[in-house]
Specification:
It comes from Microbacterium pygmaeum. It is a multi-pass membrane protein. By secondary structure, the chain is mostly helical. The chain folds into 3 domains: 198 residues, MFS general substrate transporter like domains (Growth Hormone, Chain: A), CATH 1.20.1250; 56 residues; 204 residues, Growth Hormone, Chain: A, CATH 1.20.1250. The chain has 20 helices and 2 strands. Helix 5 packs antiparallel against helix 19, helix 14 packs parallel to helix 19 and helix 17 packs antiparallel against helix 18.
Amino acid sequence: MGSRDEDARRRLSRMPRQGVIVAVLAFTGLVSSFMFTLMVPIQSKLPELLNASRDDTAWVVTSTLLAAAVITPISGRLGDMYGKRRIVLVLLGVMIAGSVIAAFSPGIVGIIVGRTLQGAIVGVVPLGISILRDVLHENRVDSAIALISATLGVGGALGLPISAVITEQSDWHLLFWVAAALGAIGFVLVLWIVPVSVLRTAGRFDFVGAAGLAVGLIGVLLAISRGNEWGWGSPATLGTGLGGLVVLVAWGWFELRIAEPLLDLRVAARPAVLLTNIASVAMGFALFSSNVSYPQILELPVATGVGFGLSLLAASLIVMPSGLVMMVLSPVAGRMARRTGPKLLLVLGALSLVVAYGFTLLFSSEVWHILVANIIIGVGIGFGYASMPMLIMRSVPQSETGASNGLNALFRSLGTSVAAAVIGAVLATYSVEFESTQVPTGTAFTLSFVLGGIAAVIALVVALFIPTKRAPEERHPSLPN
């Protein structure tokens, strides 16, 4: 086994164009985040476009969320076992298929099926980060991870205005053809540039564990994402939520008692990994609180007394700079991580989010106030999202990088899902009627900013307690340039 690992490392060390590999994996990250902005311009119009009820069209978003949450940790384990590049190609292929199905579908069923398959693309980001650990020299890994992490914001920031223009100028189905084309380009680039994964984990895939995790996550996330529509005390919400929790508890008990688990929960329970994942939930909540509230306050009519009356395109251009800030900061984050360690990045990221929400609570009467606050949030997410996979990979064996990064991505998604449900409930509860439509009040937005700030404070406190010591057996293998 030792000689085979050494041969694999020598082959990886001879791989050319490491910068090109990073660029290709960054492109797949952009495709992933762009996919999640596709429906934003038309989300409120879906009942009319699909001739369906608002409750039914909500599944266009919910199905993608559920698929992404389930597939991400499972694809991470598959990547560790069968090759990360291979699984990235599979995920891109599934996303392309989903895009084509949705592009040809005039009705809601086909759109939901297509959007479910599109959710598979989310797994390429944690897998891409794990590939970087396999193929890059240790001194280049942190900067590359920061760049890949930045694509999560950049793709959404650039994708929103692009989607808005396409929606305003053409048939909305063109959005899916654009997604399919981007996925196809990513597939070809990965196949051509990214080296075949040769560092793999032996053993059998835990199908029972995968099924248990999928059922448990679907139950919990259904309750979170549909609680507003179903009622938080309704049998459907309580049944799916509590049922999902019971399944997850049973799943955890099972995973701890088998020789080859889907996720090694003992590794996940290490203080550095556990605290990083908890901080991920809080940071995901803080990020999505702004994603939900800022565009709404920018787009609401001025006559409501709280909005600025911007068009979707204009509002997306105000939101866009945060993603660009993340991209600009990625090399800075990489250098800082090498010099001071990723923990400081996470602390600075959480602190930036606290400052952003504090600023918004004090100043939100002008468009430029929202612009400034959103830029500061870009700084926070840029540092925070770059630091989390670095902290994870410093704390787990190389055989666990795919699954552990997938689990961290799941925790971030959990934070954003909770934020979508909670902030959505706040904006719906504190609302008034305006031209026969319920619109949020100033109190609703203030409470949303307070909740986002609280989540940022939680992320900051948790980050301060993350241990920084790395065990010798968990160090990244030093590959030659």
